[in-house]
Design brief:
CATH superfamily: Tetracycline Repressor, domain 2
Number of domains: 1
Shape: elongated
Number of strands: 0
Helix content: over 70%
Structural class: mainly alpha
CATH architecture: Orthogonal Bundle
Radius of gyration: 19 Å
Low-confidence stretches: none
CATH class: Mainly Alpha
Number of helices: 10
Strand content: under 5%
Mean pLDDT: 94
Order of helices and strands: HHHHHHHHHH
């Protein structure tokens, strides 16, 4: 890795939690220069503008959370257990996620709506990635005889993602994880009653 690439990666790593916590509009260049410990000119020597940093920061935040989710999923053998572990990841990690600003997908979705089309497109791709992961787990489970062959993977994936994101939003807004907990409990109920063989 070249020195220029190392510098860009360093800037992204330092900027990512700032954008996740304060949003695109709420993040100032002074916050970034302080967190990164570089001048505005030095940062702009590596990125053409704040937009480019924000998009790279979203990619970084999404990649980081995706890696952790993949670890949790790989730790289970049964497809239903993978889905439950995936859902529980958000409840188990809620405190840690809250410190860094919460779910990067939810934050960027709200932040980009109607004001930042490139970021909104990245959010859309991330949600598609997320739902595709759930769909793939279900289809693999059907093939292995672990999940009801009458399951509707795409429909379940939409419900799965909606319950988690909705639960995170309500829990962040109220400061009470009971909302996310109830939604995760409902996902587990659906997995055990509608999917599991």
């Amino acid at each position: 890795m070249s020195k220029a690439e190392e510098t860009k990666n360093y800037i992204i790593e330092q900027a990512a939690p700032i954008f996740n916590k304060y949003g695109y509009n709420g993040t100032s260049m002074s916050q970034l220069t302080k967190a990164i410990n570089m001048t505005k000119g030095a940062i702009y020597g590596n990125f053409k503008d704040k937009d480019e940093i924000a998009l790279a920061a979203f990619d970084y935040n999404f990649a980081e959370i995706s890696k952790k989710i993949q670890e949790v999923i790989r730790s289970k053998q049964n497809a239903c257990d993978k889905l439950i572990a995936f859902a529980n990841f958000y409840l188990d990690g809620f405190a840690g996620l809250s410190i860094t600003g919460g779910c990067p997908i939810l934050n960027a979705a709200v932040d980009s709506d109607n004001v930042h089309p490139p970021l909104q497109q990245k959010v859309s791709q991330a949600i598609e990635n997320w739902t595709n992961t759930v769909v793939k787990i279900i289809y693999n489970g059907i093939e292995r005889g672990q999940i009801n062959p009458n399951a509707k993977p795409e429909q379940f994936a939409s419900i799965f993602v909606s319950l988690i994101e909705g639960g995170i939003m309500l829990s962040r807004a109220t400061g009470n994880t009971i909302h996310l907990g109830r939604n995760i409990d409902h996902i587990i109920h659906l997995v055990n009653t509608e999917l599991r063989i």
